[in-house]
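Worked example

This section walks through a single chain of length 221. The input is the sequence exactly as stored; nothing has been trimmed or padded.
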Amino acid sequence: MTGRGLPRPAEVALAAAGLVVLSPLLALTALAVAASSRGPVLFRQERVGRGGRTFTMLKFRTMRVGGGGAQVTAAGDGRVTAVGRWLRRLKLDELPELVNVVRGELALVGPRPEVPRFVDLEDPTWRRVLEERPGITHPVTLRLTDEEGLIAAAGGDPERFYVEELLPWKLAGYLEYAAARSWRSDLAVLAATAGVLVGRRCYARVELDEVRAAGGGERPG
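Given that input, the structure is written out below as tokens.
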């Protein structure tokens, strides 16, 4: 499934150019994070990359330090700072991931990397997904622009809903895209991502009923 997206040199060039062009925005965002609450500007978290190898993913910190709790965030989570909510809504917290692209740990387009506890390397589906380099954006990601709201709407245990229902839906979407992926489709995803960021929705948001229908119905109580 690999090798059909954007060539690696093109991704590095685009990511490096993005870091340069967006440097004023990166600086302003860093200042906003630093002023919002104590703690580091960047949030570093271990994620699972291509072939099951782990790496440290970079994001702007959106939560208070020492908040603990689940690794799944639903809308209204009290651990998220006021600035963090704004960053998450505009997806500005993801900008440092361009550094991961330059380092070769992420692609511009690819399945979103998960934390190790959510990845089953013995599962054939996971092994197929991990043949691809994980990415910053993806058609699945674009349909989940309000993932936190979706998780909140599901009710109950957010982490259980994520693992048992939403994550399988994501994996199926990743494999569907990979089957027909090309450099042209990657460019289309990047263009659609830019459209979403400026408020022009290019992908229909996934609804809770769709996720549950794909998973076989209501989550058991």
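What to look for: The chain has ten helices and four strands.
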